[in-house]
Amino acid sequence: MHDFDIAIIGAGVVGLAIASRVARPDRDVVLLERHEGFGRETSGRSSQVIHAGIYYTEGSLKARFCVEGNRLLYQICRDNNIPYSPTGKLIVAVTSEEENGLPQLLERGRRNGAEGLEIISGSQAHNLEPNVNCRAAILAPSSGIVDAFSLMRFFETSAGGNGLQTAYRCEVKSIKKTTSGYKLGVLDSDGQLSYFNTRIVINSAGLECGNVAALAGIDIDRAGYRVNYCKGEFFRVGNGKQKLARRLIYPFPPRPGFVGIHTVPDLEGNMKLGPHDYFVPTVDYRVDETHKQHVYDSVKSFLPFIDIQDLEPDTSGIHPKLQRPGEPMKDFVIVHESARGLPGLINLIGIESPGLTSSPAIGRYVEKMVSDLL
Predict the structure, then answer these.
(1) Which domains are present in the chain?
(2) N or C, which end of the chain has less CB nearby within 10 Å?
(3) Minimal CA–CA distance to 82: which of 18, 12, 20, 151?
(4) Any residues with CB less than 8 A from the CB of 235 and at least 6 apart, and which?
């Protein structure tokens, strides 16, 4: 490896989106990923939902980038033949209390800039989704689903066409500040440790973002950068019932900022339910079949056609959350660390949902940061 202008750590959808924006023929840019390919952790195990931007705190990076990313993502898909479906979403109210809460949720989404939101009656919802039970619902037409792997492949190919060098099975083991940038120690697939210099380091390491920040000498507990692993399990719907809801069907939020267990249609016409979220100490993608009862209990009031025997374990994913169990949702952290005496280090910490939707917008945001540095 020779010296680089920019080193990006992490080939999830956000790292790849950044690479597609910062790679240029006149720059030496490398993307480092410890796995054998892109999207092997959070990005490749997501629900692949394109979010509208309803749930997030007004003015937060999550709200801003979700709404901006929603528009950009659809345009990218249309222009580059990336499979997607603008399914739309219903956020359903089953009780009178939930129905009374819909206007406030609608107003939050509108203030965030989510497009086309409206409250519809139970009969209108029934006309759209005859098998769904509710008193009223928010219709979010800009929600949808996307083939996340095709999107990531597009970002990688686009960046490669502009000179990006991709180094898979290469894990960053050290980050040392130098007079002109940073010296990175990288362990390759042969077990060899090599070093190279780079002017800019972009930490987009997902589940490892806190540990990478620590390599640069940041006290991640004082900085609030320590991430907590939150596992989300999905159960697929069978017995011919997987086609009985075409849209994304979400419950009224169980608490502020949290979406609850919902339907996830896919591009093949199948459906799963999830995520059943809970914090875990380590990365483990096995789905606990005993959680099927909880998933069923969570959806039976608004998906009355589902029986517990229709559910089978499917996939799981893990998000790097900055909040701990019981704490309110925290925002993305995207910061140039010059105030910590680390100019040229850009940290992206706690990039969880809606990271997939936000990825094109985050890419543009980081590109502006990089342009100010080079």
Answers:
(1) 4-44+149-226+329-373 (3.50.50.60), 89-141+228-321 (3.30.9.10)
(2) C
(3) 151
(4) 272, 273, 274, 276, 287, 291, 292, 295, 311, 312, 313, 314
Query: Which residues are bridge partners to 28 per DSSP?
Result: none
Token digits for 290? 């005993």
Measured in degrees and rounded to the nearest 5, phi and psi for residue 251 equal -75, 165
Whether the predicted pLDDT of 374 surpasses 70: yes
The two structure tokens encoding residue 346: 């850009």
CA distance 262 to 248: 7
Reading the block at residue 249, the tokens are 């069907």
Residues 8-50 have pLDDT tens digits of 999 999 999 999 999 999 999 999 999 999 999 999 999 999 9
**Whole-prediction pTM:** 0.96
3-state secondary structure of 309: helix
Convert 230-243 to b/e letters by CB count within 10 Å (16 or more is b).
bbbbbbbbeeebbe
